[in-house]
Amino acid sequence: MSKSVCLETRELKFSYPDGPTALHGISLDVKRGDFVAVIGQNGSGKTTLAKHFNGLLRPDAGKVCLFGEDIASRNVSQLAQDVGYVFQNPDHQIFSATVREEIDFGPRNLGCSNDKVDRRTEEAIEYFGLGNFADCQPAVLGFGLRRKVSIAAVYAMKTPVLILDEPTSGLDLKSTNELMAVISELHRLEHTIILITHDMRVVAEYVPHCMVMRGGEILAHDETREIFKNSELLLETQIAVPQISELGNRMTPYGMPDDVLTVPEFADEYSRILSGLEEGKKSADRR
Fold it and tell me: What residues form DSSP beta bridges with 70?
């Protein structure tokens, strides 16, 4: 997988009309094939930043580049060929009479041939398990299914970059894990994925890199393990790590690593610690 730069910003500044400055000179690089979570409290600038990547917002100063080219001269429909955006509320995105029509709108709007539209639509329907709902009106479906439809519609456009704004919001644990498994598979298929979320369990279990925002600035951009063991940064940004990571941090005096992210990792390390204690006891008994 190529790791050349996919998205970059340089000294990006933005203010809403009659409002405070939302972005304060942000410079960042996202490489091709990266899977990055953008985290931070409400109002930190996460969605505002993401909407600059597909032209929904335009900077007051600075620039945004996609695959090395400034996007200033490209309109939203042109950028939609490369950057797919899934809104936080699926009802802000869904408008068609049936699930099938919702999914085929994107590739049809991109000018794909009828055959290609049909292939992409059927592939997305199958990939997201929507076969039984293809001819249903999206508005009558449950929230989790509407969320799947909104993501499937963007997936059918085959954009190399996919931005998802709070995709697991309102989903139960089972639905969240099913959806994140699909998103992880898209990452495996070399899509660049930017995930805006407040769900730190999802970040810990699925997302290898994090970008931490506060007050329209990026305070850190690093591997998730490094971010989650930076207690000073987490306290400063009021980000609560998953309970299993917190428990792991408390057990570091007993030999637990300070970067445990998941329950299986904790269990493995705990077993290692217990084995070491048992071996130590046996050695003491032999003496």
Answer: 65
- Residue 284 and residue 149 share a domain: no
How many distinct structural domains can be found in the chain?
A: 2
- In this structure, the answer to whether residues 104 and 176 fall within a common structural domain is yes
Sign of CA dihedral 88, 89, 95, 99: positive
End-to-end Cα separation, the chain, in angstroms? 55
The CA distance from 122 to 14, in Å, is: 40
State the CATH number of the domain containing residue 173: 3.40.50.300
pLDDT, tens digit (0-9, with 9 covering 90-100), for 134-178: 999 998 998 888 988 999 999 999 999 999 999 988 888 988 898
Q: What is the DSSP string of 25-49?
A: EEEEEEETT-EEEEE--TTSSHHHH
Q: What local confidence, expressed as pLDDT, does residue 282 receive? A: 66
Q: Report the DSSP beta bridge partners of residue 217.
A: 214
Q: CA nearest 213: which of 21, 62, 48, 39?
A: 39
Same domain, 194 and 250: no
Query: Domain limits at 12?
Result: 5-238
Q: In the structure encoding, which two tokens stand for residue 235, read together?
A: 């306290």
